[in-house]
Design brief:
With about 120 residues, the chain is an alpha/beta fold. It contains five helices and five strands.
Length: about 120
């Protein structure tokens, strides 16, 4: 099954690392955004099958972006990423409809399995 992913993270090196992991696994990265607002706009434009999104970002954080995406697109498949020690954000993300949660630093196989699980 072919599907498209967008990556939303404020750190360019993190977007690059995730892109390389996904592309090495044969998963198409359709686009990238550097904050939650740009990510929401990119989702509107591309409507990908999966979103990988950081929580802590400037302009609009991942929680707010997740909320906006899921309000407009209730079937959106979003996998959240964040650092250790953000238990409250993990719970909030799941309550808002995130499909999964990846804790940074992550293993490449964890990203691939979360994305594949989100589309299955």
């Amino acid at each position: 099954m072919k599907f498209r992913v967008i990556i939303i993270d404020d750190l360019s090196f993190m977007r690059t690392a995730i892109r390389e992991i996904l592309e090495d696994a044969g998963i198409m990265v359709a686009g990238e955004a550097e904050n939650g607002l740009a990510g929401f706009e990119l989702y509107n434009e591309l409507q990908p099958e999966v979103v990988l999104m950081d929580i802590t970002m400037p302009v609009m954080d991942g929680i707010e972006s997740l909320k906006k995406i899921r309000e407009k697109y209730p079937d959106a498949r979003v996998v959240m990423c964040s650092a250790l020690g953000q238990q409250e954000y993990i719970i909030k993300s799941i309550q808002l409809g995130a499909r999964d949660f990846i804790v940074k630093p992550f293993r490449p196989e964890r990203i691939i399995s979360a994305v594949q699980k989100a589309v299955s």
